[in-house]
Specification:
This protein is about 50% helix and about 20% strand. It contains 6 helices and 7 strands. The chain has helices spanning about 5-15, 25-40, 45-65, 90-100, 120-140, 170-180; strands spanning about 75-80, 80-90, 110, 115, 150-155, 160-165, 185-195. Helix 4 (about 90-100) links the parallel strand 2 and strand 3. Helix 1 (about 5-15) runs parallel beside helix 5 (about 120-140) and helix 3 packs antiparallel against helix 4 (about 90-100). The longest helix has 22 residues, at about 45-65. It is globular.
Length: about 200
């Protein structure tokens, strides 16, 4: 039986996290983690809240346009900077993904890395989810990196990073972790160094 793209994404995420991230409990854990870490994130509570609002509004615009057409699109948001990753089935959805994201209040920049690929499937999502999990683990265990300041995604073996580094040295350590990961073809980063 062929599964839908949202099911595939949930299955891959659940496999990596060891729980049903798309279940109500998994969703609550995600919301709780966001609220609990906002105070120590460089963006602060208001900056984190703004990015959470932007995410909700972009997703709402996508669902209004096509309930399932953007299920394969990844969304990273940091300080109003939006990174779009993943795949859509056709050029019309690609153009809409970008224009709808740009139309949300508070979005400063949109970095478009969406591919048109009607044939992507569960294997692609599972491998990319493994890359993301490995990267998160690597920077979490590195005590010289403030891992909460980074958002991570992967699509088609390309690793995407956005966030704030404490200094140039931390940024280089994060990039070194990314480049050392097995299965990563390319690293695309939008990491800025914190200004004093």
């Amino acid at each position: 039986m062929k599964r839908s793209l949202p099911f595939a994404a949930c299955a891959a995420l659940a496999a990596v996290l060891g729980l049903s991230a798309c279940s109500p409990f998994g969703a609550l854990v995600g919301v709780g983690a966001t609220v609990g870490t906002a105070a120590v994130d460089e963006r602060g509570v208001s900056g984190t809240a703004s990015d959470v609002r932007i995410r909700a509004e972009v997703n709402a615009a996508w669902v209004k346009r096509d309930a399932f057409g953007f299920a394969g699109v990844g969304l990273l948001i940091h300080e109003g900077r939006v990174v779009l990753t993943g795949t859509v089935a056709d050029e019309g959805l690609h153009a809409d993904a970008v224009s709808l994201a740009r139309g949300v209040s508070g979005v400063n920049e949109v970095y478009d890395h969406v591919r048109v690929d009607p044939g992507s499937g569960l294997a692609d999502y599972t491998e990319d989810a493994g890359i993301v999990a490995s990267m998160r683990k690597g920077i979490l265990l590195d005590k010289s990196i403030t891992s909460l300041n980074y958002d991570i995604d992967a699509s088609n073996h390309v690793l995407y990073l956005i966030g704030i580094a404490q200094d140039a040295g931390e940024k280089q350590r994060v990039l070194a972790h990314a480049r050392a990961l097995s299965g990563v073809r390319q690293v695309v980063e939008y990491v800025r160094v914190k200004t004093p």
